[in-house]
Amino acid sequence: MDVLVSEWLRLDQNITTRAEIEELSRSGNEEELRTRLADRIEFGTAGLRGRMEAGFSRMNDLTIIQASQGLCAYVLQQNPDTAQDEGIVIGHDHRYNSERWALLTARAFISKGVKVYLHRGLVHTPLVPFSVGRLRAACGVMITASHNPKNDNGYKVYWQNAVQIIEPHDRGIAESIKANLEPGPSAWSVDDVTESPLYFDKTEEMTELYLDQVSSQIHDKSVKPPSTMPDAILTERACRSLQPLNASTDLKFVFTAMHGVGYKIAMRAIETAGFKPFIAVQAQQEPNPDFPTVPFPNPEEKGALNLAIEEANKQGADYVFAVDPDADRFAAAEKQADGKWTQFTGDQLGTLLASSILDRYKKSGKPIEKLAMVASAVSSKMLESMAKAEGFKFAECLTGFKWIGNTALNLEAGGYDVKFGYEEAIGFMCSPEIRDKDGVTAMVTFAEMTVASRAEGKRLSERLNDLYNKYGYHQTKNGYFVCRDPEVIKKIFARLGSFPHYSSTVSSAAYPSGAASLPLTAVRDLTTGSAYDSETEDRKPVLPVSGGNMITFKLGSAEEGVQVVMTLRTSGTEPKGVIWLPIFGDQE
């Protein structure tokens, strides 16, 4: 352990994190030192994400420098002739250390002669992939831990296709990081980053263009400008601002940014789209890295929307909208006729958004077989049922928007028009220009649907029931447990494939034969080392095995008209074991 302590102290120039390791060493806390220093933080699903502390396995100045040097070296290796001029887009949120780590990332690239588009101030995550695409950059980095607890931070990487990295780039970057661990001579110096001739500020330009694409997702073109208005200012945005799209209804919306960076961009988007101003939850309006009113800043968590619902009741509002702290995820709740509130699940939001987008596409007159939508493997099968009934293309992929985004690009390359993608963890892709989850664009799209539905005399919960009646009732039950020991997780998933007292009709392997009263009808095992799918001819899964743990069991009863798709997997960003139970069958 002394060797690891000495190596840390040799490399680290941050006095705070140096002091942490020195104190642990002085106190003889071998267990904590081993936890912090024995392993490196893994570069994986979301780039880097973890607790902000000293140590090779944590998020800190040194690991950010090492990751940035490795990423830069990999980018230059992959595109030696163009990468320096294409550059990198960098953004950061409001968490502790985020601004400094964005500057350290910029320094690593500038030191190698690479152009840097460093967004000024706090930005929401979707602006980074949007900017990568518009600026045709070589890659992008967003410093954020999204909805994680306040002590966490992260380093999210986008490739030149403006989508989160997948294989082989994730492995290549991880290896490049290991080969570039020694900080360069100027690695710790950030004071003069913005004075470099390689530094460019495109923040406002990209923000305006982003707002234009948000506006383009609004499909109600009925608002007309006065004929006396000069042609020079008859822009789409100006036309919309003349009369809010919800002017014909009495709907009120309450919005919460969950102490994150979403308030300003969301309000600008609402104004751009032509809605009445939303009522903000002031206690959660401004960015605050301590997240004082919520123990866990995730709109999905029980109680996270309590303040917003209280404000909505005071204001007589009909809907509560929320984005998570980096504004890439969206949540919503609706007040019912009896005064009670219904918070929509991610699958319900996805179903409603998909139905609205489907209706628009059908009205456009375009061939329905060219339309495509994407959902993750742990999301509800409702979207698949809709596709079968309506004739559009449905594609399933692994969990996470790195897979959803890349699946969308592959479908586009095959001639499909990909209008929507989602995962049940309230992540929605509603714009063909951003192949990542975007809470602001999803919110504006959802708001338009809300107004249109209410104009027809229906709440969205009623619209959702109509969809169940048309395509079949689908319900999702999910939950999770926390386990921080990788060995225990391995044993859990190994046991799921080794039930010695059971015999399955779908596999020679010892998977369980059923659950409760339902027999097993199919199994797909994407756990590393297993790679089995009973529904394919060669028994090999179509979906890739990406180094994690994930098993899907299909259970069914023809007599009861019920099918259960049960997926057990580990989270890519948190120490969670997650269980999804998307259940669907007849309405009754």
TrEMBL record:
Keywords: Carbohydrate metabolism, Cytoplasm, Glucose metabolism, Isomerase, Magnesium, Metal-binding, Phosphoprotein. The lineage of its organism: Eukaryota, Fungi, Dikarya, Basidiomycota, Agaricomycotina. Coiled coil: none annotated. Residues 41-180, 246-335, 346-471 form the Alpha-D-phosphohexomutase alpha/beta/alpha domain. PROSITE patterns: PGM_PMM (PS00710). GO terms for cellular component: cytoplasm; nucleus. InterPro entries: A-D-PHexomutase_a/b/a-I (IPR005844), A-D-PHexomutase_a/b/a-I/II/III (IPR016055), A-D-PHexomutase_a/b/a-II (IPR005845), A-D-PHexomutase_a/b/a-III (IPR005846), A-D-PHexomutase_CS (IPR016066), Alpha-D-phosphohexomutase_SF (IPR005841). This is Phosphoglucomutase. The keyword Transferase does not apply. One of its GO terms (biological process) is glucose metabolic process. It is found in: Cytoplasm. Its cofactor is Mg(2+). The keyword Magnesium applies. It comes from Tulasnella calospora MUT 4182. GO terms for molecular function: magnesium ion binding; phosphopentomutase activity. Belongs to the phosphohexose mutase family. Its main location: cytoplasm.
